[in-house]
Amino acid sequence: AGTGRASAQLDRVVSAAHEGRVASLFGAGGVQRWGSSDAGVVTERPDPQPGDVERLAEAALATWNTGGRVCAVDPDDVPQGAEIAAVVRY
Q1: Are 83 and 10 spatial neighbours (Cβ–Cβ below 8 Å)?
Q2: pLDDT digits (tens, 9 = 90+) for 63-86
Q3: What interhelical angle do 10-18 and 55-65 show, nearest 10?
Q4: Would you say residue 37 has pLDDT above 90?
Q5: pLDDT at residue 3 above 90?
Q6: Residues 16-30: what's their mean pLDDT?
Q7: Whether 49 contacts 90, CB under 8 Å
Q8: Which of 19, 21, 54, 57 is deepest in the core (most CB within 10 A)?
Q9: Is 40 exposed, middle or buried (0-12, 13-18, 19+ CB in 10 A)?
Q10: Phi and psi (nearest 5°) for 16?
Q11: Phi and psi (nearest 5°) for 69?
């Protein structure tokens, strides 16, 4: 975690995934975080609203589509006690 090549912050992980920088993604199985992104402003909600996407699934799909590895793990096994964590390529 101290190398600058890892993150457990959802917004950073989602952005890195869309940029194709995520090499490995670890997401808490069964956890959902709904939200939307408009002009770079991210809104997160516990329950979905019209136009929202499930943010962990969004990161997983973007990672998979850019050749990264996606792992669903027990929520207690996600590094740093987060809901999602990633190792980035650069």
Answers
A1: yes
A2: 999 999 999 999 999 988 899 999
A3: 30
A4: no
A5: no
A6: 95
A7: no
A8: 21
A9: exposed
A10: -60, -40
A11: -95, 135
- CB of 13 within 8 A of CB of 25? yes
Tokens of residue 49, six digits: 């609203």
Paired sense of beta strands 34-38 and 41-45, if any:
antiparallel
d(CA 18, CA 20): 5
Q: Which amino acid is at 83?
A: E
Tokens describing residue 7 = 């993150």
What are the structure tokens assigned to 6, written together?
A: 């890892």
3-class DSSP assignment, residue 33: coil
At 1, the amino acid letter reads A
Extract the tokens encoding 24: 């490995």
Q: pTM value?
A: 0.87
Question: Burial, 8: exposed, middle or buried (Cβ in 10 Å; 0-12, 13-18, 19+)?
Answer: middle
